[in-house]
């Protein structure tokens, strides 16, 4: 449906010496439920060359996440929607706000644009 610009960002967390990341967001329409969509995204990651790692936030070829799934709230052992860090990571919310500024975080009841502006202001301090 929509694809954001790509944003070159510094890595957050993980081992030192990592290169920059390219971040973006896409709005899609799918007949898959959220758990099936996650499985499909993981298959895409493997086909793109992602290798499993035990290191949290290690460098990786590709990382596909579900940020929002309509107004659903899911929190189980496989999936958390909205993404657990969506409201804390400018590199996630900025591309989302570009393509869907009015997308509502179903827990915080704030739009992507409102969250982005709050994070951008906090990072300037």
Number of domains in the coordinates? 1
Q: Which strand order do you get reading across the main beta sheet?
A: 1-4
Low-confidence stretches: none
What about the largest sheet? 2 strands, antiparallel
Structure report:
30% of the residues lie in helices and 11% in strands. With 125 residues, it is an alpha+beta fold. It has one domain (2-124): Alpha-Beta Plaits. It has a two-stranded antiparallel ribbon. The protein has a two-stranded antiparallel ribbon with strand order 2-3. Helix 2 crosses helix 3.
Key words describing this protein structure:
two-stranded antiparallel sheet, alpha+beta, globular, 125 residues, Alpha-Beta Plaits
Summarize the structure.
This protein has helices spanning 34-47, 90-99, 112-124, and strands at 2-3, 7-9, 21-23, 26-27, 74-75, 80-81.
């Amino acid at each position: 449906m929509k694809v954001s610009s790509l944003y070159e960002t510094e890595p957050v967390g993980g081992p030192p010496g990592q290169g920059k990341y390219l971040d973006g967001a896409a709005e899609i329409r799918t007949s898959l439920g959220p758990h099936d969509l996650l499985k499909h995204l993981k298959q895409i990651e493997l086909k793109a060359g992602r290798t499993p790692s035990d290191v949290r936030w290690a460098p990786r070829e590709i990382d596909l996440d579900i940020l929002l799934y309509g107004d659903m709230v899911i929190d189980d052992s496989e999936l958390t929607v909205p993404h657990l860090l969506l409201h804390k990571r400018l590199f996630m919310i900025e591309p989302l706000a570009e393509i869907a500024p009015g997308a509502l975080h179903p827990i915080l009841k704030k739009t992507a644009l409102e969250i982005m502006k709050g994070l951008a202001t906090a990072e300037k301090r």
